From TrEMBL:
Residues 10-139, 156-220 form the Exoribonuclease phosphorolytic domain. The keyword tRNA processing applies. Phosphate binds at R85, G123, T124, R125. The lineage of its organism: Bacteria, Pseudomonadati, Pseudomonadota, Alphaproteobacteria, Rhodobacterales. It is an enzyme of class 2 (transferase). Its EC number is 2.7.7.56. It catalyses: tRNA(n+1) + phosphate = tRNA(n) + a ribonucleoside 5'-diphosphate. InterPro entries: ExoRNase_PH_dom1, ExoRNase_PH_dom2, ExoRNase_PH_dom2_sf, PNPase/RNase_PH_dom_sf, Ribosomal_Su5_D2-typ_SF, RNase_PH, RNase_PH_bac-type, RNase_PH_CS. Phosphorolytic 3'-5' exoribonuclease that plays an important role in tRNA 3'-end maturation. Removes nucleotide residues following the 3'-CCA terminus of tRNAs; can also add nucleotides to the ends of RNA molecules by using nucleoside diphosphates as substrates, but this may not be physiologically important. Probably plays a role in initiation of 16S rRNA degradation (leading to ribosome degradation) during starvation. The keyword Lyase does not apply. This is Ribonuclease PH. One of its GO terms (molecular function) is tRNA nucleotidyltransferase activity. Keywords: Nucleotidyltransferase, RNA-binding, rRNA processing, Transferase, tRNA processing, tRNA-binding.
Amino acid sequence: MRPSGRKIDQMREVSIETGVTRHAEGSCLIRMGDTHVLCTATIDERVPQFLKNSGLGWVTAEYGMLPRATHTRMRREAKNGQSGRTQEIQRLIGRSLRAGVDRVALGERQITVDCDVIQADGGTRCAAITGGWVALKLAVNQLMKAGIVISDPLVDPVAAISCGIYAGQEILDLDYPEDSEAGVDGNFIMTAGKLVEVQMSAEGATFSRGQMDNLLDLAGAGITALNRVQLDAVK
């Protein structure tokens, strides 16, 4: 029995509210159970120096957690004093979102996706990627509506879900009590039917090829469900 009472293949309740900030070109608040992340997308007509005059666009991301997103207060992180965890997560978000972007169609501009964790209960990076794509899509929609971008540069939705082995069972969408006790913990980032990145580790026990296949199947079903929520949000 999972601590939450969920079935092994049951996700937490997911909702995405769009247009939650006034100034960002794209914004949403994603809730995956008790993990809540505010995602905003900002369009900049400049690109990093290494892409200047290349004709290619760029998508990057920043990630942070509010001081009381967790059980105890954390100190705020200055950009030049970010923890290794924060830097790793925001690079992951950027890589993941770029996997679903036609950078030629985007044109020589940059979109920055900011993901701020308001409340954490496991799976914050997965929620950030899933909500980050929605914010990115809303920003791109503005470019297309204005005629600045002709064809949609977002090829496929990108979403992420956690899976792991808890109490000897493969389970989908770990919350904090499961994540902190899982023998195996993994994050699966996918476009529609294709893998972008898999982060897996044996936290307390090794795992077999068969268990890995089961986790992939769980993740695939979870990503499909998340894609439906994402596409409904950006209609």
